[in-house]
Amino acid sequence: MRLLPLSLDISQKTVVVVGGGPIAARKTEKVLSAGGIVTVVAPQITEKLEHLSNEGKIKWVKDVCRPAYLVHAFMIISASGSKEAQSIIQRSAQPGQLINGADNPAIGNVAFTATIEHEDCMISISTLGKDPSLAKRMKHKLQKMLNKEEK
């Protein structure tokens, strides 16, 4: 997948996160921080996601992935690890929908970057979906460098 670095305004856009584990929780927090409206589709969710649901910050659909849950989404995030859910997402995706394959980059057409916000800047680090752990390590190194410059 060839990617174009891009910042995207998702405020008030519907984002469906398929999966309820730690990866789904991290992606959900990222989307919420950007102003997205999140629906999580999963039979079970982490405590963090349950807390967000109880606070009314996300909608939780306590079910497996079904095409009907995806049809109106601006973006779909696949984070369940389920091959069946990934297949449903692939088959159900509408033209123009953004798909992030957090659990399988091959099904996606967008990738999240590791991001640092510092003063009035946003720095994004991408390995083009090949090695998220490398992007995370680079992010931490850059954060340390920026913090040293502030002192």
From TrEMBL:
Q: Which reaction does it catalyse?
A: precorrin-2 + NAD(+) = sirohydrochlorin + NADH + 2 H(+)
* A Pfam family it matches: NAD_binding_7
Report the EC code(s) recorded for this entry: 1.3.1.76
Q: Which keywords, in A-to-Z order, does the entry hold?
A: NAD, Oxidoreductase, Porphyrin biosynthesis
Domain of life according to the entry = Bacteria
Name the enzyme's class: oxidoreductase
Q: In which pathway does it act?
A: Porphyrin-containing compound metabolism; siroheme biosynthesis; sirohydrochlorin from precorrin-2: step 1/1
Query: Which InterPro entries does the UniProt record give?
Result: Met8-like, NAD(P)-bd_dom_sf, Sirohaem_synthase_N
UniProt xrefs under PANTHER family: SIROHEME BIOSYNTHESIS PROTEIN MET8
Q: Which NCBIfam families match?
A: cysG_Nterm (TIGR01470)
According to UniProt, the name of this protein is precorrin-2 dehydrogenase
